[in-house]
Amino acid sequence: MYKSIIRPILFLFDPEKVHHFSFFLIKMLSRIGILGLIKPFFTIEDQRLEREVFGLKFKNPVGLAAGFDKNAMLYNELSSFGFGFVEIGTLTPKPQDGNPKKRLFRLKTDSAIINRMGFNNEGVFEAVERLKKEHMVLIGGNIGKNKITPNDDAIKDYLICFDALFEHVDYFVVNVSSPNTPGLRELQDKEPLTRLLKELEITNRKLASEKSVKRKPILLKIAPDLTNDQLLDIIAIVADTKIDGVIATNTTIERKNLKSHVLLLEENGGLSGKPLRDRSTEVIRFLSEKSNKAFPIIGVGGIHSPEDALEKLNAGADLIQLWTGFIYEGPILVKKINKTILKQKV
Question: Domain with 174 in it: what CATH number?
Fold first, then answer.
């Protein structure tokens, strides 16, 4: 019903407005109790789906990627669609509007999306207030820097977000790979990235000691546009800084072999969806093989079917995340993937 009736109607309207409408609708369905009634239709409860990764127990390996619930508004409600974990953000210390609209574009012919949102969010401290309520699902906190913060001062922004979120999320994701904040990807270079991750780990252990709790897992989200040499640097950086894993991958700036109208292809921003599938899988396989599976990988990019999910897992991903596939295929995709995993015993 989603692909035949609901999606065609939603796709008649501006993508960003549809996103806000969808949040309003999910919230209303939750308040009147309907979301709870339909939850069994989307979820599978089975111990065989559980995964223990970087010290956390996930009830299933399918998560919602960052960018969907930027401000931690509906993480519990979204878990009703069967996700094993939900990643909020990207969050920055200060609120920011992001890039001028229009900044979100559907490439329907390619089952893809171009976005240049620019870390639009209400700021980390607003999110913290929402995160104080009980969590029904594991939460990842995706953190970044404000646009106006120069790269030389970027570490301060990440530390502010880390400190604010420490008691409220289960793991952290360091986002230095979005193409929509000018200069951000320069932080992926070996020297600044190593310095950033080491500072975060120092703070991680300090906060854990002060609060008498375990340190929080730290993951690095990387771009699909890195060269093999740069990926080898990432492997070395993970070993050097002793962070817990990698998320592969963010959106791409490439526009190869697309069928959509040329005017859409000229839009700046990160491309996600089916065209990203092969490259993200290549990056996962490269990292897994070249590191001898030394660290966990969360695979994301172009997952629109259970077969796409299995491809990521077989390439070396320990967990996977959806974003564009969730929009194009609908929430039933989560259940389909989990059912297939059970059958394949991946």
Answer: 3.20.20.70
